[in-house]
Amino acid sequence: MDQIRILLCCGAGMSSGLLAQKARKAAKKRGLEATIEARSESEAGQYFSTIDVLMLGPHYVHLQEEMKALGKPYGVPVVVIPQSIYGMLDGEQLLDLAMESLQIKE
């Protein structure tokens, strides 16, 4: 995979926006081509054709099955971000989780 396209999904986008920023820095540090954006959960469905993985904030675990069904035709895995990563705004671990879900090894 030449580039990883990650969409983070939460309510207003504040925390996920900061997390996306930190994950972009982590990707750059690792020399990875990555597009990492944050959007509201209400917008997520329109992005499946342009992303590789959808990552939900831990408070949206109840949407995981619905989003998996929407992502299935596109082959997009849907992952719930653990509270430990989300709460600490840990871009490095978020990137690791995304790569693991896509079965990408550095």
Please specify the SSE layout and strand pairing.
Elements: E1 4-10, H1 14-30, E2 34-40, E3 53-56, H2 64-71, E4 78-80, H3 83-88, H4 91-101
Parallel strand pairs: 1-2, 1-3, 3-4
Notes on the protein architecture:
The structure is a single chain. 40% of the residues lie in helices and 20% in strands. The termini are close together. Strand 1, helix 1 and strand 2 (34-40) form a beta-alpha-beta unit. The chain has helices spanning 14-30, 64-71, 83-88, 91-101, and strands at 4-10, 34-40, 53-56, 78-80. It is an alpha/beta fold and 106 residues long. The protein is globular and about 35 Å long. The chain is built from four helices and four strands, in the order βαββαβαα. A four-stranded parallel sheet has the order 2-1-3-4, sandwiched between helices.
Label this structure with key terms.
4 helices, 40% helix, alpha/beta, 20% strand, 106 residues, four-stranded parallel β-sheet, globular
Largest sheet: 4 strands, parallel
Mean model confidence by pLDDT: 93
| Count of DSSP-assigned helices | 4
Query: What's the Cα radius of gyration?
Result: 12 Å
Question: Which structural category do the helix and sheet elements fall into?
Answer: alpha/beta
Note poorly predicted spans.
none
In whole angstroms, the N-to-C terminal distance is: 11 Å
Let me know the number of strands: 4
- Percent in helix: 25-40%
Order of helices and strands: EHEEHEHH
Please summarize what this structure is.
With 106 residues, the chain is of the alpha/beta class.
